[in-house]
C-alpha cells in the first residue's frame, strides 16, 4: 500500500499537466480565431473591445487576460499604447506586467469547463464499460443455456434414433 499514494499523486500531476496543456491549446485557438475575425477592425473598434473587456473583468486587463491581446498590442504598437488609446492614459498599474496565462480568468474558466467535461466523459466511459460487461455476461449466459439445451437436444435426438433403429430391427 505504500506505493499507491505515490502512484496516485503521479497520476494527479499528469492529469493536471494534460489539462493545463489542453486549456492552453483551447485559449490559443480562441486567440487565433479572434485575430482572424478581427484583423481588419479599426483601432476604434479594437479600443471599444478593450474597454468592454475592462468592464467584464472589473479592472484594466493585462494583455494575457484578453482574447486577441496579441492583435491589440501588434496593431497599437504595444500594450501600453493600446491602453492609452482606449482611454487609460498613462496607466502604470499591473496590467502592463506580463501575467502568466494560468492566472487569467480566461484560462481558469476554460480549465474548469474542460475539467467538468472530463468528468462527464469519464462517467460516460465507465457507464459504457459497465454496460459492455453486462452485455458480455448476458451473452455468455445465453451461450451456456444454448449449449446446455443443444446438448440435451442431441441426447434426445440420439435416443430417438436409437428407438427408431430398435423398432426397425424388430
Give a quick set of tags describing it:
170 residues; mainly alpha
What is this structure's SSE topology?
Layout: H1 3-38, H2 43-57, H3 69-76, H4 79-85, H5 105-169
Percent helix, as a range, is over 70%
Radius of gyration: 34 Å
Order of helices and strands: HHHHH
End-to-end separation in angstroms reads 76 Å
The poorly predicted ranges are none
Instruction: Choose one word for the global shape.
Output: elongated
The profile of the biggest β sheet is:
none
Which class best fits the helix and strand makeup?
mainly alpha
User: Helical region count?
Assistant: 5
Strand-residue fraction?
Answer: under 5%
Number of strands: 0
Mean pLDDT, all residues: 83
Structure description:
- The protein is mainly alpha-helical.
- The protein has five helices and no strands.
- The termini are far apart.
Give me a quick take on this structure.
With 170 residues, this protein is mainly alpha-helical. The chain has helices at 3-38, 43-57, 69-76, 79-85, 105-169.
Amino acid at each position: 500500500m505504500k506505493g499507491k499514494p505515490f502512484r496516485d499523486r503521479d497520476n494527479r500531476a499528469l492529469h493536471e499537466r494534460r489539462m493545463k496543456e489542453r486549456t492552453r491549446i483551447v485559449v490559443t485557438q480562441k486567440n487565433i480565431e479572434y485575430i482572424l475575425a478581427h484583423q481588419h477592425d479599426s483601432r476604434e473598434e479594437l479600443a471599444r473591445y478593450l474597454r468592454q473587456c475592462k468592464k467584464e473583468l472589473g479592472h484594466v486587463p493585462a494583455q494575457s487576460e484578453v482574447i486577441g491581446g496579441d492583435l491589440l498590442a501588434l496593431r497599437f504598437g504595444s500594450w501600453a499604447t493600446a491602453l492609452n488609446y482606449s482611454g487609460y492614459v498613462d496607466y502604470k498599474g499591473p496590467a502592463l506586467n506580463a501575467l502568466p496565462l494560468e492566472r487569467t480568468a480566461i484560462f481558469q474558466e476554460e480549465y474548469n469547463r474542460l475539467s467538468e467535461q472530463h468528468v462527464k466523459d469519464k462517467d460516460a466511459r465507465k457507464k459504457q464499460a459497465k454496460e459492455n460487461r453486462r452485455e458480455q455476461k448476458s451473452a455468455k449466459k445465453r451461450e451456456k443455456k444454448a449449449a446446455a439445451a443443444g446438448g440435451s437436444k442431441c441426447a434426445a435426438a440420439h435416443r430417438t434414433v436409437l428407438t427408431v433403429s430398435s423398432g426397425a430391427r424388430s
